[in-house]
Amino acid sequence: MQFIALTSIGIEHLLAEELEQAGVTLGKQSVGSVRFETDNSTAQRICMMTRFATRIMLLIDESEEISNKDALYKFARFQAWQDWFGPTQTFAIEFNGTNTELKNTQFSGLVIKDGVVDYFNDLYEQRPNVDKSEPNIRIIAKLNRDKCALYIDYSGPRLSDRGYRTKQGKAPIREHLAAALVKRSGWLDDITQPLFDPCCGSGTLLIEAAGMANNAPTNTEREFAFKRLPSFRKAKFDIVKAELKEQQQDNNLWLIGSDIDSKLVEVAEQNAGRAGVSNTIKFKQGDANQLKSIAKRPGVVISNLPYGERIGSMAELVNLHRNMGVAFKKYFPNWKLALLGTDDSLFKLLKLSREKRYKFKNGPLDAEFNLYELNERQVNQNERATGLNYEGSSAFANRVKKNKQALKSWLKKEQVSAYRVYDADIPEYNVAVDVYNDCAVIFEYAAPKEIEDDVAQKRLQDVITLTAQQLNIEPENIAVKVRKRQKGEAQYTSMDKQNRFEIVEEFGAKFKVNLFDYLDTGLFLDHRLARRYIQENANGKRVLNLFAYTGSVSVHAALGGAKAVTTVDMSKTYLKWAEENFALNELKNTRFRFEQADCLKWLEHAQGQYDLIFLDPPTFSNSKRMKEAFDVQRDHIQLLTWIKNILSPSGTLVFSNNKRGFKMDEVALIGLGLKAENISEKTLSPDFKRNKQIHNSWLITHG
């Protein structure tokens, strides 16, 4: 009988070795799969003991002449389906692949379904039913060009699900991949040595290691699909199952796992209990940033290192890898390291020379598994290489220190708690650094094309380290973001939200900011003085805030005694945020209104009169009100035409934008009967004086 075993990319060789040791005849090995021939008992044994396969399928037939619908139907129609199930059983079709004629997998699956149903109808005058959720038999078809193979699902649900893991961490590793890492680490060559995972999460790596060292079967209690086949013999199966359990050993193992999250440590202990290895592994809470010696005898450190799955988490990762690199050399001499990660630039922060590298797929992610030996030569060679990537990075540190000192008296006088301390002052270090209380945000500007990615990445790593040092801020309180021109709603996309909010103050106003979940924080710091102008001139006036974002200008207007405040923005999220800012400042009035709308559409049809208007449109926008995408340079006169209709005779418009090189069309403005005063210089607070192109601002009134 011919079978195919599936696995993840990068594990095929280990799977082939495992199958060969089980006594099968190996066939073709391809990406993510290995073919083999064996009997039913051995195939069942493999399903119960495999560490590396995710699925076992039994080959029914294959053809290289399936070019169209008719050929596919005939191929399915003339198989001996009664050998695998009967007309009273249910079945499902799983179809993968396309060719020039068969382009829709759902349609191709229906073609096969028709062939199966027609076969039983002709033979028994009875047709089996389809059950997509829990069928008795699952038929799998794989099409590659004109070659099609038909399989029966032999193992059933994913073999990598051993059943012990009911809860897991944020970056889980599949059990079969964990087993592959244990195998590649070399620890199994001497299971008397300690095995330590400093970022153990839910404990999968250590639990798999314990099972492998004790030769424990992986899946003896599950309901396999082969049990529903006519060829299944329970007595023979029970014998095979008993033999596997008898082969299990009870070795004295030295396994240690730690994680900074105490709740995850509890989960790991529970998982180990379900796997039957709780007495074998010692789990404890511990910070991988502060590693110490754990055993006198050298062993193996194995870990799936954390990776950045949320916006802004890079500072923690840079700090972690740097600290781990130092600790490994100091406290783990003569140990071996086996570390999985997704970012080669982070591995380089360990300042270690790797011995081997393996490439895997961890779910959808490309991952690499690096092996290191902490011998005396390695430690001595890299002893002095644990600092910065570039000595020139000290210039960045000095500039941050100098800027912070220069702003000190102003910050104290104005009681400002959120400010910019660095903005690409040194061209090679092309970032902006903003401080929010005891936190910081590093915005990385897109590097010029002539700068290699590796160089830019290393400079950014130095920036992160030095920002933490110079500003005395913990790495977990530093958000790192790449500032690029976004498409559509991409700038509002968040990943794995932390929902961490800071409260910052300026000129008597309080604002909620979120440094980690969005590209922008909720407060544009460069508009600080414009907001103060609104507050100082809002008393008794009707104020309108367009493209309002989180409503900071509206808050200042309300605090300044505005008679009415209208806040308009397209985003529900930001309008809700604006209302929360009002509540934070204890502002409540029926004349404080929040309107969700496309501001351009709203302006075109706006009625009423406003005495003070704040207008800060985006540089570009795909508004439906424009024939083309909105461009503030090209379309600002149209904007001002609409504004003129609602600006009271003695009213003032504060018009601002962030387009570099923006030029006001003064001729067209005169034609509208409006006049403008450029106040850009007056709206730049000391922390933005170094970048005079950060924004443009005008006061516009009736002529």
Architecture overview:
This protein has 703 residues and is an alpha/beta fold. The chain has 4 domains: 2-153, 2-Layer Sandwich (VC0802-like); 175-214 and 249-381, Rossmann fold (3-Layer(aba) Sandwich), CATH 3.40.50; 391-492, 2-Layer Sandwich (Transcription Regulator spoIIAA); 524-702, Rossmann fold. It is built from 19 helices and 30 strands. It has an 8-stranded mixed sheet with strand order 2-3-1-4-8-7-5-6. Strands 11-10-9-12-13-15-14 form a 7-stranded mixed sheet. A 7-stranded mixed sheet has the order 24-23-22-25-28-30-29, with helices on both faces. Helix 2 (40-49) crosses helix 7, helix 5 packs across helix 6 (204-213) and helix 14 (528-537) runs parallel beside helix 15 (552-559). The longest helix is centred in the middle third of the chain and has 21 residues, at 394-414. The model is unreliable at 484-495 (pLDDT under 50).
